[in-house]
Design a protein that fits this description.
heterodimer, A: mainly alpha, MetI-like fold, 15 helices, B: alpha/beta, Rossmann fold, 8-stranded mixed sheet, 13 strands, globular, ATP hydrolysis activity (chain B), cell membrane (chain B), ATP-binding (chain B), ATP binding (chain B), transport (chain B)
């Protein structure tokens, strides 16, 4: 198991390194950063002055390494717009985003996996139909629309929950449902398909022939094998939720990292965008790594490959 | 019914609802099994032999309708036994060995876990005791370094080793009945004989009864006490192995026997026998002898219900009183 983990860790670091280079290059791919900073009315001399001030005149590799070493120490420079250190800005916003992401994926897993198992145990039953309806509806409904419906019903008409903000745990209930419901259909369908396949396999019959009860057959023998692709999917979705929940954050006025990214792109605030891209990529890398390790624990055959 | 009768099955019928009606997969099977006895059920693919064994274990798939006049195992009425009772019997008093050793073990657990589970499901013993029993059984099925094998996963073992593990798992609780469903079919020819020998030796040593399902008559001749020949869901001939091989009475049994080479009798280079034709569809009403479409001795009477002939020991189901043996001799 340990060699496998080390190998995956090495791979993850390589990917992280590549991603850091790409996110740094974005600065130059989006045009002359000095000209963008100086503004439309700036003279050529002003642009040159800014270029020297920010160090854009030095070789790119030098700038990259400098940026990378600073980033590793947690220094992402200063936001062009807020005139504050980017690191602090992101750390503050990440709290909201991570709370929402963890709640969202937990909600998705806790509803999707049991529903998928139940649907697979009795295909074409009422439960299966209900699960199918929920997943189709979840896939078809845009998040912003579903979020608005929930706000109208539960916040405005019933008055049970606050419509926006991030002041208490109650503020997170509606966004969690919206974000979780977005991830739920795919997880549910994958759990159902996996369980259906595994339940037809010979080793399930062996378990029954041993005298194992249905609960044991389902959860000890079947689910462990069926859940493996679900783990990989959930990891990707978790990464997505931490980086891309811009829509949900906007609808519920939760000022998280996704919202910050959207704002910063609009304001051409390159150091912030760069840092956010790096942070979001790191989330993906970390979750993929964790999913690989978890899968290797679940399925011993993966450890050797 | 004498005291040493372990399993008694009367008029077992299995119907499978399919798109175009009902598939009459098994029709009116009778058989008995005594303690320590080996019964071999022989037949082609699709003859219903595996379904018959799954019906005894109570492991039929959803939708398959089972009915019988009688089905008792150690005095338990299997037709009316609760799910809980069946679970208690399965793996403890009756165990099953499946055909595919590559897929019949759970890839996610060590073989030690799976062996130990088989015992812990039925006995309230400690994990250490169960572990010791697992080592004992692995040694019994001829696995060396048993202690260290416990920590291995199925994918780390060869097919032959896995089938030994499957056998060890079936024997963890010392069952009274082992059902082996083509236990050697998926293995290399060189391993087949070893595994079969092992099974026979172990059943004798532990005084277990065995139902051996196979399409290999060579296997049957070597190990079975009794033979039941199935064709298209029916029992066409049943009796002591020696008697069935000596005097095969049903035309189908004779056809099957002609398909296997016999040392000393079959000429080198001469073509082996085949049975022309295909198995009939069993969807809808099936009447008379199912073999009549392929039987060289078929007469109009084959369409009617055919009685079991012969005596209590060796029976066969044929419209011809002598199973058309005289007709066959005339042709020869």
């Amino acid at each position: 198991m340990l060699p496998f983990i080390l190998k995956r860790l090495g791979l993850a670091l390589l990917v992280a390194f590549t991603v850091s280079f790409i996110s740094f290059s974005l600065l130059f791919l989006s045009g002359d950063p000095a000209a963008a900073l100086a503004g439309e009315t700036a003279s050529g001399e002003d642009i040159e002055a800014i270029r020297r001030l920010y160090g854009f005149d030095r070789p790119m590799i030098v700038q990259y390494l400098e940026w990378l070493f600073a980033a590793v120490r947690g220094d992402f420079g200063e936001s062009y717009y807020f005139k504050l250190p980017v690191a602090g800005l992101i750390a503050e916003r990440l709290q909201v985003t991570m709370t929402l992401g963890v709640c969202g994926i937990s909600f998705a897993l806790l509803t999707a996996v049991p529903l998928g198992v139940a649907a697979a145990v009795r295909p074409n039953s009422i439960i299966d139909r209900v699960a199918l309806f929920l997943s189709v509806a979840g896939q078809a409904m845009p998040s912003f629309w579903f979020g608005l419906i929930l706000i109208v019903v539960f916040a405005i008409q019933l008055g049970w929950l606050p419509p926006s903000g991030a002041d208490s745990w109650r503020h997170f209930i509606l966004p969690t449902i919206v974000l979780g419901y977005y991830a739920m259909p795919a997880i549910m369908r994958l759990t159902r398909a996996g369980m259906l396949e595994v339940l037809n396999s010979d080793f399930i019959r062996t378990a029954r022939a041993k005298g194992a009860g249905e609960g044991r057959v389902m959860f000890k023998h079947a689910l462990r094998n069926a859940i493996i692709p679900v783990v990989s999917l959930a990891a990707v979705q978790m990464g997505f939720m931490l980086g891309g929940s811009i829509v949900v954050e906007s609808v519920f006025a939760l000022h998280g990292a996704g919202y910050l990214a959207w704002e910063s792109i609009a304001r051409n605030d390159l150091p912030t965008v760069q840092a956010l891209i790096l942070v979001f990529s790191m989330f993906y890398i970390v979750f993929t790594f964790l999913a690989d390790v978890l899968n290797a624990w679940l399925d011993p055959r993966m450890r050797s490959s | 019914m004498t005291d040493d009768t372990l399993l008694k099955v009367r008029n077992l019928t299995l119907d499978i609802p399919v798109g175009g009606g009902t598939l009459r997969a098994v029709r009116g099977i009778d058989f008995d099994l005594k303690r320590g006895e080996t019964l071999s059920i022989v037949g082609e693919s699709g003859s219903g032999k595996s379904l018959t064994s799954l019906a005894v274990m109570g492991l039929l798939g959803k939708g398959i309708k089972r009915s019988a006049d009688e089905m008792t195992f150690e005095g338990t009425d299997l037709l009316r036994a609760s799910k809980r009772k069946m679970r208690a019997l399965r793996g403890d008093r009756m165990a099953m060995i499946f055909q595919e050793p590559m897929t019949s073990l759970n890839p996610a657990y060590t073989i030690g876990d799976q062996l130990i589970e088989a015992l812990l499901l039925h006995r309230s013993v400690g994990r250490e005791t169960a572990r010791a029993r697992a080592v004992e059984l692995l040694e019994k099925v001829g696995i060396t370094a048993a202690e260290s094998r416990l920590g291995q996963y199925p994918h780390q073992l060869s097919g032959g080793l896995r089938q030994r593990v499957v056998i060890a798992m079936a024997l963890m609780c010392e069952p009274d009945l082992v059902i082996a469903d083509e236990p050697t079919t998926a293995l290399d020819v060189t391993i087949q004989a070893q595994i079969l020998r092992l099974l026979v030796d172990l059943t004798r040593e532990m005084n277990m009864a065995m139902i051996l399902i196979t399409h290999d008559l060579g296997v049957v001749a070597r190990v079975a006490d009794k033979v039941a020949v199935m064709y298209a869901g029916e029992l066409v001939e049943t009796g002591p192995a020696a008697s069935v091989f000596e005097a095969p009475s049903h035309p189908y049994t004779r056809g099957l026997l002609r398909c296997i080479p016999q040392p000393g009798k079959t000429e080198r280079g001469a073509p082996l026998g085949t049975i022309p034709g295909i198995v009939p569809s069993l969807i809808g009403e099936v009447s008379g002898c199912a073999f009549r479409t392929r039987c060289p001795h078929a007469v109009p009477g084959c369409r009617a219900a055919i009685p079991m002939r012969g005596d209590d020991v060796h029976g066969y189901r044929c419209v011809h009183p002598d199973g058309a043996i005289s007709a066959e001799r005339e042709i020869a």
